[in-house]
Amino acid sequence: MRAATGGAIDRTRRLGFRFDGREFSGHPGDTLSSALLANGVRIVGRSFKYHRPRGIFGYGAEEPNALFQLGEEPNCRGGLTPLSQGLEAAGQNAWPSVRFDLGAVAGLAAPLLPAGFYYKTFMAPRRLWPLYEGLIRRAAGLGRAPGTPDPHRYDTRHAHVEVLVVGGGPAGIAAALAAATRGQRVMLVDDGARLGLMAADPAARIDGLAADDWLAAREAALAAMPDVTLLRRATAFALSDGPRVDVVQHLDGPGARQCRWVVHAGRIVLATGAQERPLVFADNDRPGVMLASAARAYATRHAALPGRRAVILAGHDSAYGTALALRGAGMEIAAIVDPRPAAGPLARAAREAGIPCLPGHAVVKALGARGVKGCLVMPIAGGATRRLECDTLLVSGGFTPSLQLFAQAGGRTRFDAALGAFLPVAGSAPVECVGACAGAATIAEALAHSLPAGAMPRVEEAPEAAPCALSIMPLPPGLRGKRFIDLHNDVTVEDIDLAVREGFGHIEQVKRYTTLGMGTDQGRTSGLIGAGQAAARMERTLAEVGVTRPRPPVSPVTFGALAGGHVGPHMAPGRVTPIQPWHDANGARTAQVGSWRRPQLYPRAGETDQQAIDREVLNTRGKVGLVDVSTLGKFDLRGRDVPEFLNRVYVNAWSNLAIGRCRYGVMLREDGMVLDDGTTSRLGEHLYAMTVTTGNAERVQAHLDRLLQLAWPELDVALTPVTEQWAAIGVAGPRAREVLAAMAEFDVSDAALPYMALAQGRVAGIPARVFRISFSGERAYEVNVPSQHGLAVWEAAMEAGAPFGIMPYGTEAMLTMRAEKGFFMPGFEADGRTTLDDLGLGRMMSRRKGCVGQAALRRPAFLAPDRKQMVGLLTEDAAQPIPRGAQIVADASGPSIGHITAGLHSATLGRWIALALVEGGRARMGETLLAAAPLAGQSVPVRVVDPVFLDPEGERLRG
Amino acid sequence: MVEFTPLPALPLLTVWGGESQALAAAAGMALPPALCRATLAPGGAVLRLGPTEWLMMGDAARADAWAGLDTVDVSGAWTGWRIAGRGARALLARGAMIDLDARHFPPGHCARTRVARCPAILLPRAEDTIDLFAARSYAPWLLGWLHDAARVAGLA
Q1: CB pair distance less than 8 Å for B117 and A724
Q2: DSSP structure string for A624-679
Q3: Largest pairwise CA distance in chain B
Q4: What is the pLDDT of residues A498-534, one digit of tens each?
Q5: Residues A627, A579: contact at Cβ < 8 Å?
Q6: Helices and strands (DSSP H and E) totals, chain B
Q7: How far apart (Å, rounded) are the C-alpha atoms in residues A321 and A350?
Q8: B116–A726: do the CB atoms touch at under 8 Å?
Q9: What are phi and psi of A65, to 5 degrees?
């Protein structure tokens, strides 16, 4: 129903919208929930488990019932969704509609669906789990997950402020003002469309003004300050170290739909307020049962009345204020039922206004299946029940401080018996709590938290009596009806009792067993009541039992807001080498490998992928190939102590590396596992160039930087990452020297530039470093030139190589050739669990010096003979591929004794080969094992062989 | 509104030297007084990126000026754009975590940080102008990311 007057809505304009296919209209200033209330819609959803009809219950993030499917997005809270022209909303958990829901038969089966039903029912047999999982997934969660990509865009902004205030009530506004006037950058975040308060006393005045007006004036003052950022319709959903607070802000307009603010704050003030909690009685979930504070917010802010005639169950004085406000807005108040024997001055005001009051009474049951038609009331001390007629039943059980962010900051709480709730312990976290979340019960107290004594305004408001200690109303004998504690997840008083009876002795266990507080409302209205009930059943105090720990996010956040601009092609950086334009122009198939976009192969028309790879391999082995290896990690090392540094980080010895020579090395992690391999070359007396694997470049840099800065600051070594500085071009194959000779302005004969040597000079006119190293097993030269010249030198090499039959090759051919040579690769064979000896390189370890990781290798498990060792595998039939991801077994029914790390077609050998890690592999040479891929239904006999399939003597390398 | 202008290729030189006095003697010019500070000159700049790590740009990047110190040519490692306009700082704050407020990050400051996960060096030139140097391999992707972010933010 729409009140005749009042509310911050624009009555001159209408906004049409649809709910479950029916047409309605509202006004600018409405939310979806307020517009539905104004249109008299009572059933807005079906409950999670029993499919009971549900109505609007709350106003903001605490809403457990009024959750809507808006297009593809589920679980949109109606009170936080501004009404817009053409809005299409659908109720959830119902088919065909919330008014006629076939799933409601679940209600008939309710006795069969106690807490833990799914855990108990879907346990055995295990082989049926895939079926069970499908059933449980369909039953779990409200709403429908989107089936298409989110069409909206989301913005992300980093903000730095001296003071961040979360919550725009009196304490928050006062705190922001106090900070802003000191010239600091201040941000104030509030999840309502406008800031403000919901004071207990609707007649409260500050400095002679209506409290709302006084605050509105201060909000306007804040908005006018250049260093104050007001974020409205914004929810602070996570607080983490830094300190940093993540906020999601809903935006209007044509651009981004939401903005996630990452706020770095010097000081964080939490003015997160307090959440009204309900009182629990039989059938307290009927449409028409609503939080009193929510009803008041709808009536005063949106002129939307939840009904014509209300009974209010008041466990807190503010409900009397609400009664007065609602009556002012045009609602009839049938009675205020208060379990307490006496209330504060607001109760007197209500009585004097002619509202019937029933102190010492309780509502024990709501009447009406599809919406409240009345309620049963009885004296709290016992006695006969009587019926009150009403269409709305408002509940007010006191206020629970909202401390989710405080808890995320690591804050501790203590139980306050007078308030019946947990309060923050000041100083237990690096954030401040002010206002209602810190226990302020009145405007004056809240302001006093934020303002110095001299700046306090004069506040006139009614004082309050203590709230009702009882949250769950008695259920008289003979009366039936479910008493819901958690409306979102359909958790009843009986469910909590059952959990305790079954032995769940911790509130976190009770939560997980019953799903208490696990809905999108995160238990805002139910957590404390559920914990109280559990404590009573455990015969302990609530102070001892405590409440569950809130985790981020405080409120649901859409994935799009977390991803921000990192979606689609912008998801993660795709690095390219300076030669990428040539690859793109010459038909390369590129793939993202780690952070890099790299050419995999250069297929020609009519070729299959395998044919292209085979051609690239055979051409390199027979003539000459060109490969872009600019992605390799590269470091410039300078200083007197570089040899000592290399001795410490590599397993082998480096003291005797001559100028102009290269050496292969392997690095270990501190736990002894192989970290990386590569070559380091000596360019001058104190100048070295190190190369590491593409995918490991950043990891190795962090490893080396940490060692230099923390472990060995005394070493004279300057480590400069130069991956980006150098383009690297590999020229490999029997004719590689001729190609290089055509470009180089220096002697590249085998005498001048033997295997594992380097030369410096001009190549294609560009100053270059040429390393004679090989990852293909062929004679190969790696030409490094400054990146800005990389493309020109590549093109020059293609031209110079044309008479020799040069072809580019991609990562697939490169990986094939390394497997033919049995070279291990980090990420494949060196998978973080492999030692040097596992890779067959144990003899590389120098015993004359120590290195990082060496000590760890003395642990007995690293010397065990049945460790997985790298071996080669051959199929009996050369044309038989080895299934990818296959496990190695000794016989068909035996356990896995190893796995394939690379299985591929070797064009050079004309057969399929594989590398594998197999338990005690080197002792199994010649044995026949099985490569089994049960999911693919494949099992292939394989013979264990040496992992070096080609040219074990390295004759091709030396030419 | 934000405009991107590619910066001309500049000589860049990493210089390692702990004692800024020794450096100053070699340079014959004023050096940034503290970490994350830069000295700007018409033909170049000196950036103090680490306790012992300096980045010389333009005229300051002549290796012979730094005799006796470890110098590494990194001219090919970075790609630069001048990002200018009233939304320049706001746009960069979409991807960079550091405080870009003109009062906290004025000309004379510099930062090596990440922008949209890409290694970058930021050198403010004026209230509405910041030079962004991106690691070369990331540069094409980062430029695409920034243009997209500018569209989403209404700064394009």
Answers
A1: no
A2: EEEEE-TTSEEEEEESTTHHHHHHHHBSS--TTPPTTBEEEEEEE-TTSSEEEEEE
A3: 50
A4: 999 999 999 999 999 999 999 888 899 999 999 999 9
A5: no
A6: 3, 10
A7: 8
A8: no
A9: -110, -50
In chain B, whose CA is at the least distance from the CA of A786? Answer: B76
B118 contacts A726? CB cut-off 8 A: no
DSSP per-residue string spanning A61-130: TT-SS-EEEETTEEEEEGGGSB--TTEEEEESS-SB-SSSBGGGHHHHTGGG--TTHHHHHS-S-GGGHH
List Cα–Cα distances, A159 to A644, A855, B97, in angstroms.
Answer: 45, 47, 8
Residues of A in contact with B97 (CB under 8 A): 158, 262, 264
Tens of pLDDT, residue by residue over A608-663, are 999 999 999 999 999 999 999 999 999 999 999 999 999 999 999 999 999 999 99
Q: What type of residue is A926?
A: G
Query: What's phi and psi for A610, nearest 5 deg?
Result: -65, -40
Q: What are phi and psi of A342, to 5 degrees?
A: -150, 150
Label the pairing between strands B38-41 and B12-16: unpaired
Beta-strand relationship, A154-166 and A186-189: parallel
Contact status of B96 with chain A (Cβ, < 8 Å): yes
Across the interface, whether the CB atoms of A577 and B145 are under 8 A apart is answered no
Contact A432, A425 (CB under 8 A): no
Q: Long-range pairs for A544-547 at CB < 8 Å and ≥24 separation? A: A545/A507, A546/A413, A546/A422, A546/A507, A547/A422, A547/A507
Is the pLDDT assigned to residue A416 strictly greater than 70?
yes
If you average pLDDT over residues B45-70, what whole number do you get?
Answer: 87
Closest CA to A314 of A386, A394, A382: A394
- d(CA B126, CA A99) in angstroms, rounded, equals 62
- The residue behind tokens 């993660």 is A572
Place of tokens 């819609």: A41
Return the bridge partners of A684, or none: A687
- In three-state secondary structure terms, A176 is helix
Taking the C-alpha atoms of residue A440 and residue A438, their distance in angstroms, rounded to an integer, is: 6
pLDDT band at A86 (very low <50, low <70, confident <90, very high): very high
Asked if the model's pLDDT at residue A538 lies above 70, the reply is yes
* 3-class secondary structure, A581: helix
Residue whose entry in the numeric block shows the structure tokens 């004794």: A897
b vs e for A42-51, b when ≥16 Cβ sit within 10 Å of the residue's Cβ? bbbbbbbbbb
Q: Which residues pair with B89 in a beta bridge?
A: none
State the pTM of this model: 0.91
Q: What's the burial of A313, exposed, middle or buried (CB within 10 Å: 0-12/13-18/19+)?
A: buried
B149 and chain A: CB distance < 8 Å anywhere? yes
From the list B70, B101, B116, which residue is nearest A638 (CB)? B70
> How many Å apart are CA A519 and CA A516, to the nearest integer?
8
Determine the residue type at A496. Answer: I
Burial A833-851 (b: 16+ CB within 10 A, else e): ebbbbbbbbeebbbeebeb
- The pair of structure tokens assigned to A783 is 């030409």
N-terminal to C-terminal alpha carbon distance within chain A: 92
Torsion angle in degrees (nearest 10) through CA of A880, A883, A889, A892:
-70
Beta pairing class for A662-668 and A596-601: unpaired
> Which tokens in the block code for residue A695?
């995918």
Cα–Cα distance between A139 and A135 in angstroms, integer? 6
CB atoms within 10 A of CB B22: 12
Check CB contact of B141 with chain A, cutoff 8 Å.
yes
Cα of B39 to nearest chain A Cα, Å: 22
Q: Most A CBs within 10 Å: which of B53, B71, B105, B141, as the mutation test of the A interface?
A: B141
A256: nearest CA partner in chain B: B152
